[in-house]
Structures are given as structure tokens and as C-alpha cells.
Amino acid sequence: MKWFLVAFMTQVYSDNSIDTYIFYNPVFDSSQQCINYVQKNNEPIYFTLMREFPNDELHKLLCVEEEKLRKFLELNAAEQESRVET
Is 63's pLDDT higher than 60? Predict the structure, then answer.
């Protein structure tokens, strides 16, 4: 089972979406490895997010298991499609 670090930003758009960033590198073998990485690499994580979203602020960092992340992405894609159709 693989784990990924996911960042959620604070800004909410008119369609209720928020900026989200998934760190695909590195990938972790456990939630504890992910947490340890965040604790040791706080500044590089923060600078990456500020580069990607210069007008936004970090709301939350989560370590997410691969299957849950896959479901989140599928639901998000379906929601985006329904917005386009209406």
C-alpha cells in the first residue's frame, strides 16, 4: 500500500472548488513515513506550494492512502464533468 502527501489550500472559488496539490514524489510505504517526511521537510513543502499557488495559503496537509486518493480523484473528475454539463 502506497501513501501520498496531499495539500489543500484555503482559497474557495465560486464553484466551491479549492486548490489541491498531490506530491507524487516521494511516495511512502506507510502513513508514519509520510508524517516523518513532512516533519523533516516543512520548508521545501511550503516553498513548493507557494510557487504553485502564490496567492493562496496552506490549509491542511494530509497523508492519504493510494486507494482513498484514487477515489477522491475519481469523485473530483465526476464532479467537474457535471459542472461542465450544467
Answer: yes
Can you give the pTM of this predicted structure?
Answer: 0.86
- Grid coordinates given for 31: 502513513
pLDDT of the residue at 85: 57
Residue 73 domain boundaries: 3-85
Domain count, the chain: 1
Exposure letters 22-55 (e unless 16+ CB within 10 A, then b): ebeeeebeeeeebeebeeeeeeebeeebeeebee
Q: For 28-54, give the secondary structure using H, E and C.
A: ECCHHHHHHHHHHCHHHHHHHHHHHCC
